[in-house]
Amino acid sequence: MDAGWVASCLTDFDAIWDVLTPENRAGLLREVVPSVEVNEPANEVKVIITDLTKATTTKLAYEVAV
User: Fold this and answer.
1) CB atoms within 10 A of CB 9
2) pTM of the prediction?
3) I want to staple 44 with a disulfide (CB 3.0 to 4.6 A). Which of 2, 6, 9, 39 is the partner?
4) Long-range pairs, 40-44, Cβ under 8 A, ≥24
């Protein structure tokens, strides 16, 4: 999937989401959030989010305590 397409979808997310097919919705989510790691014993969730502001996409990790 093209990072430019993903970035353009996110600029007007509500309007785009309403017209995307289920397959394209799934593809968009996989590009933006390629990984979620759950550590139940530690009560932690780590979400990997693609940084679409870079010329080449990089993955950013966000850790959230649940």
Assistant:
1) 20
2) 0.57
3) 39
4) none
